[in-house]
Amino acid sequence: MNYEKRAVIQHQKGLHTRVAAMVVQKSHALSTTYQTTLFFRYKEQENIASNSLILLCSLKIKAGDEVWVVGHGKHAAYVVNQMVKFLESDFQFDNAQIISEVDKLLQDNAFTAEQIFNSMANGLMVSDEHDVVTIFNPAAEEILGIPANAVVGKKVYDVIPNSRLHFVNKTGIPELAYRQVIGSSSTITNRTPIIIDGQIKGAVAIFEDISALEKITGELQEVKELKGQLQLILESVQDGICVVNKEGCITYVNPAYLRILNQQYAQLVGQNIQEISPNGARCNVLSSGKQVLGTISKKKNGVAVVANVNPIIVDGEVTGVVSVVKDITEVQGLMENLNHISAKAEYLEQELWRTKKPNRAFEHFIGRSGKVFDVLAMAAKAAEGSSNVLIRGESGTGKELVAEGIHYASRQGAGPFIRVNCGAIPTNLLESELFGHEKGAFTGAIRRKLGKFELADHGTIFLDEIGEMEKSMQVKLLRVLQKKEFERVGGESTIKVNVRIIAATNQDLEKMVLNGEFREDLYYRLNVIPLLLPPLRERKEDIPILVEHFLNKVSLELTRKAKGIKNDALDILLQYKWPGNVRELENMIERLVTLTEGDFIGIEHLPTYLKEKLITKNKEGSSIVNSEIILPWEEYEKRIIKLALGTYNSYNRAGKALGLTHKTIAAKAKKYGIEKTVSW
């Protein structure tokens, strides 16, 4: 049953706090006794519970105001009438128990208000009509950095100099959303006066620290600006950019992406890659979470693109992918052109190496022929690394000069260059020579001796005539090559070295390996970078240069000047086979300068054996046509081809001399079984 009735407040002070407490106490007693719920309605507001002191006080009901009492329950009419009668009374009580209950209710509500004040996240400061602070909650302490005991009971303007609470107390004009900096805190404050019965009884300030909020606002502004800049960058770059969310829908494409694919924004954004490209890189990355780089694909419009697709990972979860594409249709054409240009550049670079000494370290090796430049260019390349080098060539071709050049052109150039002639040292002494020995290791070992490998540490060791080394020593040398360590003869400690090995030989090591005379594993260890020096007969264009060099050298040594060599004598030197190579030529020039009386060397000064060999050769050539016996044409052809190849040792030069192509000369030589001696 519902029932309501109007009551007119007769008490001259209205429902102030104590009276309101009496009303709440009376309401509680009636509701409990008659099992009826009571509500109050004031003016046009909603019903409020009759047992809430705070809500009842907040209505600020004055004398003469009308209040509706609403009851719900079996005895609603009776309870409502009793409450209306009570509201219209003068609230005078003589019952000590009732007064005690009212005081307890007030005390409980005071504690409740205090708990509310202390639990507020906002700062609360209340002053009385004399500007004395009466309430200062913990949030106010934290925000302003002032303890409550230093504020409560004191004048507002004494403890907080820039506070405006006393102005509000004086003027009665509220200040809302007032921003103020107090200490290091930036606050937003609402200040309102406390007005009771038309009189200002103090003021309340509720304030909030907005320092963090202002910081976040600033950061948000920076993020907004950064987003704008990023958007501008994405719109400006020439690479196509496509962003896909975790569901596979395209959420963003930049103008470059649209241009490359020749499509419109509406055709792409909102499309699902699972439908338009189920086997593409974007689907792969979205499902696997692993980036895919450098994938090349051809689009429907014929454009070839290369794409880098990366996952977007947030908190360890793949939330999408971003694909960056480049149009490589033109690039592929440019790459083809670049390949042609690179090939030409490589050829020109090789030609430059052929016409220029690779390194000053090789300046002692005299020669300008193509074969010399080729082998020196390869030697210079070998010098850039630290791999073992095997120099092949006949005796007297300058193997030691090339080894020396490799050393001084390499990173080990500042270290020692140690020479060892393996063929000149007896086998029983070679181990001691290479690895050293300890005192007393054998008869005659009266002191410790350091070996060549130890002396060559951080440098280069040149092992000349490596083919002369016996197999027992080859095993020990192999260990040094493999592990860079050895023991002295008679010693127990292992010595580690950092040595580059350059070996040289004039023997056919491959044949020696087949015959079991040279270890195959050692051969492959040494033959990392092979260099084959051409014999002098294969670079005869260098003979005039070498002759001039040796004439100047010998003249300085003998203090005797030879001005030069006559052309007819030089022609004979050019036709000679030079089995001893450059060393033989140097010795001959030294002999000629020493024995020649005049300023120029002529045919008459040349050794007899040289002139006799030339005459014999000429006779062999003339006998082909001077013989009275008529031979078959193929026999003449065979002799002519053999003579030409024996003279020039080159299919090309022999062909030029006979007026034939080098292919024809090679075919005829193969037909007649004529071998041409070449170096490489």
UniProtKB/TrEMBL annotation:
InterPro entries: AAA+_ATPase, AAA_lid_NorR, Homeodomain-like_sf, HPr-like, HPr-like_sf, HTH_TyrR, P-loop_NTPase, PAS. Residues 109-160, 226-279 form the PAS domain. Pfam families: AAA_lid_14 (PF25601), HTH_50 (PF18024), PAS (PF00989), PAS_9 (PF13426), PTS-HPr (PF00381), Sigma54_activat (PF00158). The keyword Nucleotide-binding applies. Residues 365-594 form the Sigma-54 factor interaction domain. The keyword ATP-binding applies. Residues 2-96 form the HPr domain. Keywords: Aromatic hydrocarbons catabolism, ATP-binding, Nucleotide-binding, Transcription, Transcription regulation. Gene3D superfamilies: 1.10.8.60, Homeodomain-like, HPr-like, P-loop containing nucleotide triphosphate hydrolases, PAS domain. This is HTH-type transcriptional regulatory protein TyrR.
